[in-house]
UniProtKB/TrEMBL annotation:
Chain residues that bind ATP: 18-25, 150
Compartment(s) of residence: Cytoplasm
Catalytic activity: (R)-pantothenate + ATP = (R)-4'-phosphopantothenate + ADP + H(+)
Entry note: cofactor: A monovalent cation. Ammonium or potassium.
Enzyme Commission code: 2.7.1.33
Source organism per UniProt: Anabaena azotica FACHB-119
GO MF annotation list: pantothenate kinase activity
KW Cell division (keyword) present: no
Enzyme category, top tier: transferase
Free-text function comment from the UniProt entry: Catalyzes the phosphorylation of pantothenate (Pan), the first step in CoA biosynthesis.
Stated name of the protein: Type III pantothenate kinase
């Protein structure tokens, strides 16, 4: 469902932007098709204003290369985009960042009111809601989405698109970091692409990894088992930066569960695409 290559096609082209807690996550769509994705740092407000100025220059006949040479060096797109600016669909968990993007031409900010899930509560994260909507509309409801990011979240909806609820806990990296930061004798560890450590470890780093990894995997298994007890035909989709590492561990410990998982990093963008089609 994902293409890594940029196409020169521009008819029906639009941009999706997810403003995360630390970075901007971008996607380029051609109609219903996801063309490519990339990440950037936050952009200064002056650069966002220049994006609109470049669009005006484009309309006056100047090319994208000339626009960039006369504008800021902080160009957020990994390829020339022309004609410009494309429509932008935006979802954000950072209100201050949302505000500065209001100056971008032809922007639409997605809120919880735009997502046709039932029983949504007001403080549900827009990222969780969009990922659930994207997964459910792509693979079917009932759907449970596991986001293996900085925080590990579970978000679920039943076959009638009613929000069942979910859970939030520290992700793998955050758990390891908290042990190193909040204790006097434990080292600072980061998430590594490592094989499963010994469950009963004989050194401190492996003991930390064992404690975090095995309890995290047991928790994931418990939530999935309960999900399938409630909804035997329910789907489970996983996203997030630690998804592949956790999947490899699940394949080793719980292969029957791992074989049924849908692993898709772009669930939020698919949710935005479904929203864009409903306009």
């Amino acid at each position: 469902m994902k293409s890594q290559h940029y196409s020169e096609q521009t008819e029906g082209t639009w941009l999706a932007l997810e403003i995360g807690n630390s970075r901007l996550h971008w996607a380029l769509f051609h109609g219903k098709s996801l063309n490519c994705t990339w990440d950037t740092e936050y952009l200064p407000e002056s650069v966002i204003q220049q994006l609109g100025d470049w669009g005006a220059e484009e309309q006056r006949g100047r090319g994208a290369e000339e626009q960039r040479s006369r504008g800021s060096s902080i160009y957020p797109f990994p390829f020339p985009l022309s004609p410009f600016p494309f429509p932008l669909l935006l979802a954000s968990v950072v209100p201050q960042q949302t505000a500065i993007w209001q100056s971008y031409p032809n922007v639409r900010v997605i809120t919880l009111e735009d997502i046709p899930l039932n029983n949504i509560y007001p403080t549900l994260g827009i990222d969780r809601a969009l990922a659930l909507w994207g997964a459910g509309m792509s693979w079917g409801f009932p759907m449970l989405v596991i986001d293996a990011g900085t925080a590990l979240t579970f978000t679920a909806a039943d076959g009638d698109k009613n929000l069942v609820g979910g859970a939030i806990l520290p992700g793998m990296g955050l758990q390891l970091a908290s042990l190193g930061q909040k204790t006097g004798q434990l080292p600072q560890l980061e998430v590594e692409e490592i094989q499963l450590p010994p469950r009963f470890a004989l050194n401190t780093p492996q003991a930390m990894q064992s404690g975090v990894i095995y309890t995290l995997l047991a928790g994931i298994k418990d939530f999935i088992d309960e999900w399938w007890r409630l909804f035997p035909d329910g789907k489970v989709a996983m996203k997030g930066g630690d998804r592949n590492l956790l999947l490899s561990y699940l394949q080793e410990l719980y292969p029957a569960i791992a074989s049924r998982l849908i692993v898709e990093p772009n669930l939020i963008f698919w949710g935005m695409q479904k929203i864009s089609m409903s306009r």
